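User: Can you fold this complex?
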Amino acid sequence: MTLGYLLTVGTFTGIFMILTLSLNILTGYAKQVSLGHAAFFGIGAYAAAILATKFGLSFWAALPCVVAVTTVVGIFLGLPSLRVSHDFLVLSTIGLNFIVGSVFKYFSFFGGSMGIVDIPTPTFFGKAFGTVGYFGLTFAFVTLAVLTSIYFSRTWGRLAMEAFGEDETAAKAMGINVAKFKIYAFAISSAYAGIAGALWAHYVGSVFPENFGFDRSIDILAMLVLGGLGTIRGAVFGALLLQVLPEALRFIQDYRMLVSGAVLALMMVFQPMGLLGKGSFLYLRSLGILRHFRRGVASGAP
Amino acid sequence: MDFLQQLVFALVLGSSYALIAIGLTMVYGILKVLHVAHAGIYTLGAYMALLVVTHLTRNFWVALLLGMVAAGLAGVLIYRGVYYYILRRPRIVPLIVSIGIFTAMNELFRLLFGPYQHAFPAVLRFPMVITPYFLITQKQLLIIVLTTFFLLMLYLVLNKTRVGLAWQACSQDLSMAGAVGVPVDWAVALNFLLGSALAGAAGVLMAFYRNMVYPTMGNVVAYKAFVVVVLGGFGSVRGSVIAGMLLALVETFLGSLEWFNFPRDAIAFLLLILVLMFRPKGLFGRL
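Assistant: Here's the predicted assembly.
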């Protein structure tokens, strides 16, 4: 097990952390279940790939464009959520995977099923990022995503989203502009996913339609549900667990989707708040241990 | 004529859509749960029939029957084993659970039977129709006849029996139906049994028709079934049957146009999003 291998696993984990954080805003706060998150991710990755290979833009110059593209697409794709209630929104997000996937696959502008290859590695002051540098770059973005998530979770926007997530009619009666905040949720969420996509595209160096299918959407949702819907710590932890565990336990690799599916079903039945969500067993227990420990330190006992 | 031949294809395709969508519609009508795992049941029916055909007998009818039985029982198991306990939770819970079950089922099939396509070597004596205008192969005729038979039986059960009456009561108000003496648990379990058996039948029929069984065969077809449910106006069996046929017609005829090189499977989802945006209650919805 070399350092390079660990850093690679770490980089992918970081990318998925950004994805779960982005899904957390949409599904955790606003309660709009999205099974099409891989589509946003894919749009980001393809935007980055096309800007880099066809327009020759550097990673840094392309990034704002990628974010702009995914935000606009997110707003557009969020429009159905204004008309459609919960269950059927999920259906349209499933459809999103298929539509976006087939657009990538059948239009030669997006490289068709051959994908887009030879995406250059980003540079920093003329020097290309190595494995270590890219790991650092990814985690700089993870940190940024966590910090902005924390900031967002303290704003009025998050309160509004949680309010209409619980009860749309009541939220409307309280004077919340539900439509506006739903679109915000989609826009913010897909902007994050776009960054994750750009990081992925430049790291892997190629994008294919199959990278961003329905399975990947389920993966991302499973990570978030496992960690804890609606919490930042849960999103980060879930991505860490479901990315690193299959690497550590090689024999699980073949059962990956089985694990994702089982995680989704079992967690929702037994611990719907996730492992580290609000009021979950593990979180309460660790808080208790922490408190106990602190009290021990304070009173001078060992 | 080419037109009539296309119509035959559309009818066969529409039959499979309708058979799957019926189960989904009935479950949604009563429990208001989007039963994504229904897609897994469809695949399960096909694999059960495959087991019968490869290990027991080449007889198609036995395979169909056992496939339907297995699918029906699996449906009841999913209801009694899982949904039953989480129905009162927020609606996102059964939905995510259902998606999880579906994913796990697909993976289970892949691990048990391998990721490749199996042939489906059932034998069947069935007539075929040859006219100067179109041709219906024996498999196509079988699907059309069987689907008509199932739909007819379903019509009778829904409209002429006490079970059908109980389902209607349940779909209007579950707790009220219980209060006036409908054995709700049994009614819902029966509902799952019948709907899942029909999905299983669709799986067997499509496996026989295309002569292949593979783990992800449920994916696209069953999402389309959701589209059919939405188009048909959520919870209306008749609407779903009509919408299934309509979707198949649109797909077949758009797909046969030469300039139309957009993938066929994406049509359904485009339709879905359009309908959800402009007619959120479905094409035939009254709600």
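Residues 15-218 of chain B form one domain. Chain B has one domain: 15-218.
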